[in-house]
Design brief:
This protein has a domain at 240-352. Helix content is 47%, strand content 10%. The protein is built from 11 helices and 9 strands. The two termini are 47 Å apart. 42% of the residues are buried. This is DUF4190 domain-containing protein. Residues 121-235 form the Septum formation-related domain. Residues 38-92 form the DUF4190 domain.
Amino acid sequence: MPPPPGPQGPYPQGPYAPPWGQPYGAVPPRPTPVNGVAIAAFVLGVLCFVPAVGLVLGLVALGQIKRRGERGKGFAVAGSVLSSVGLALWVVTLSTGAAADFWDGVKDAARGEGTAYALEKGQCFTTPSGSLQGVTYDVDEVPCEEEHDGEVFAAVQLPGGAFPGDEEVARVADERCYALQDSYAMDRWALPVGVDVYYLTPTSQSWRAGDREITCLFGNTDERGTLTGSLRNDDRRLDPDQHAYLVAEGYLNRAMDEVPAAESVEEDFAGHRVWAGQVSEALRGEIGLLGRHDWPADAERPVADLVADLKAAQEQWGLAAKATDLDSFYAHYGQGYDLVEADTTVAAREALGLATTRPVYEEGGDGGGESPGKEV
C-alpha cells in the first residue's frame, strides 16, 4: 500500500509533489532598524523651511540605507522630493551640467529605478546579500544568461487603501504567485532541481511611497546557489504540439496541487475524497484535450498509450472519491497514482521533444514553504 498523502507543500518543480511530502521551512526576516537620517529628511521636507538641508539629508540617507541594509527608503525619497520642490521655489536657474545630473538622480530615486520596484516580467537580477529571504532595498538587473539570484515571472497589483499588514500581503503573494508560475514556466519537468517560487512584497514604508506590487520570481532554495539561463517556457518558446500537451497536463498538475493539508487521510478522510474527485475530473479534462489534438505521426502512438493509462487512472481516482472506508480509498488511490506516474508519460514527452527526466522532490529543504518572500 502506498504511503498516505500528506500536507500540501510548495512544488519547486515537476507536475506535482508526492502528496506525503513535507513543506519547506523558512526563517522569518528579522526586524531592520529605520535610518534616522531618512526620518530627519522627511520631517524637513514636510516643513520645507530649509529645503536644501532636507534634500541633502535625503540623499545621504539613501546612501546609508544601501550600504547598511536599513529601512526608511520611503522617508528618504519623500524627504528629497518635498525638499526639491521647496528648493525649486527659491532657485531661479540651475545652469551647470552637474546640477542637471543632480536632479536626474533625485528623479530616478523617486521612480524607484535600480530598486525592486523597477523589475519586470522576464528580467533576472541579483541582490546585495545573494539571498531571497529577509529584506532588500535594491537589486541589480543582469542578463539571464549570467548567474543570478532570481527571475521575475509575474507581477500582482494590490488594491489601494491602508497597508493590509505583512501577513496578509504574504498570504496573497503565496496564493497568487504559485497560481501564476505555470503561465511562465509551463513545463514543471524542465525546472532545475532546487528551483522554487519566491516573491518580493511591499513593506509598510514602501506602501506609503506608492508601492503596491508583488513581484513573483523563481529562485534557488540553496541560498549559496544561483541560477543560470532563463526558465521561461511558454507559448513564445514552445511549438504548437508541445504547448497543447502542456496545457492538457496542466489540468492534472493543478488538481494535484490541491491535496488536503492534513498529514494523513485518517485526519481528513472527507477532504481526501473530495480531492480524489477533483483529480478524476482533471484527468477527464486532460484526456479530452489530448484526444482532440492532431498529433504528429511519430507522437500519435505514444500519446494514445498515455491516454489509455489516464482513462484507467481516472476510473481509479473516481472510485477513491466514492470510497466508504480507508482501505478502499488507499487501494484505488494507489492504483490511480501509479497510472498517472506510468512510463507512458515519459514516452509521450520524448516524442514531443519535452523534458523526460522525472522531477526530484526534496524534503525539509531551505527556502520556499511558508514564507518564501522578501520585503522591499
